[in-house]
Design goal:
homodimer; about 200 residues; alpha/beta; Helicase, Ruva Protein, domain 3; Dna Topoisomerase Vi A Subunit, Chain: A, domain 2; 7 strands
Chain lengths: ~200, ~200
């Protein structure tokens, strides 16, 4: 022990964050100590504030500070298109290139019986309700994994013979990759070549 | 704009930290939102708490929560040896291998006239006072740069003909590197081969 306890605690907390090792955590902590108290307070405040204010949008489950998220409450978005994503972070990959102007639906995962994620764990009733409320295209953007495929299949079956354009992203997406990290161009091509189910 | 303002603020605050880009900052923010409120609060508390409690040790200027730091107040450390480092983070490199059992002195920088760091900006009077108070070895661990060399030279001149063993780390340390990131073995060898000035 050669550092004060509050410094060790700060290092431990930083090291809990994903992809931040012990050495990086220490470097971050030293950085904080070398800055004005204001920077630490700003980060601390942003942490508590975001966690406090953000809740799921009541319509699409995207992160929101109000009843409806920024996208759902934007009247200029195409109200009759829903893009189904696994998590809020995946929306970033679409919005970065601006190719899509419809709405989203955040499922909260994909079917994965081994991890205990069944249909009940996903926000499916909400999605079906929205689709029945008048939507003419549903786009599945769930990455390319067996779990994603069976999720699409399940929703497709639940929808039955609805007169609805159902597409999914073109198979240009590399297998096993995380949608959140797809580059804009690949996402653009995959979106444009989306295929009829 | 597709994320709520408090989320964007959190991403901005994370992106201010060193070596955390926009994409990593976003990922960290999403991680926080996916965790229990407690994790965000713990990190927030650790930030404010560390910044609040930690001040320089009145003797060696290392990070401390009390008047004297953990190292200065440890009676089992050799009280007649002082290892002079640039910043608190450098102490880590010594303490990780446990080869050194003496005290430290954190200078707060090295002489760098171009950056406006002259002798007044370093904690020199405090160091001279400590040395005169009865020390028989002073070890300079300031990395290998022209600024470090001139800092050692200056302190050596200020000390004059004091009957004192003055050493510096062996020149095994690669040029231009940051002491904070030296691996333990290199640090060990450099410490053992420290040379008389």
């Amino acid at each position: 022990m050669y550092s004060p306890p509050s410094l060790e605690r700060l290092i431990n907390e930083f090291a809990r964050l994903p992809s931040i090792g012990r050495k990086s955590a220490r470097r971050l902590a030293y950085h904080i100590l070398n800055q004005k108290a204001e920077s630490a307070q700003n980060l601390a405040h942003a942490l508590v504030d975001a966690k406090d204010k953000i809740r799921p949008c009541s319509r699409c489950r995207h992160y929101s500070e109000s009843e409806l998220c920024i996208i759902c409450s934007n009247p200029r978005r195409e109200q009759n298109k829903i893009c189904v994503v696994e998590k809020s972070a995946d929306i970033e990959a679409f919005e970065a290139n601006g190719i899509y102007r419809g709405l989203y639906h955040v499922l909260g995962g994909t079917l994965s019986p081994l991890d205990g994620i069944g249909p009940q764990e996903l926000h499916l009733p909400l999605l079906l309700e929205r689709i029945r409320g008048g939507v003419n295209e549903i786009i599945f953007a769930l990455g390319s994994s067996p779990e994603a495929d069976s999720t699409v299949l399940l929703i497709d079956r639940m929808l039955g013979d609805t007169p609805l354009k159902k597409t999914r992203l073109a198979r240009g997406i590399p297998m096993g990759s995380d949608l959140e990290f797809i580059d804009e161009l690949t996402m653009l091509r995959a979106f444009e070549a989306r295929e009829q189910i």
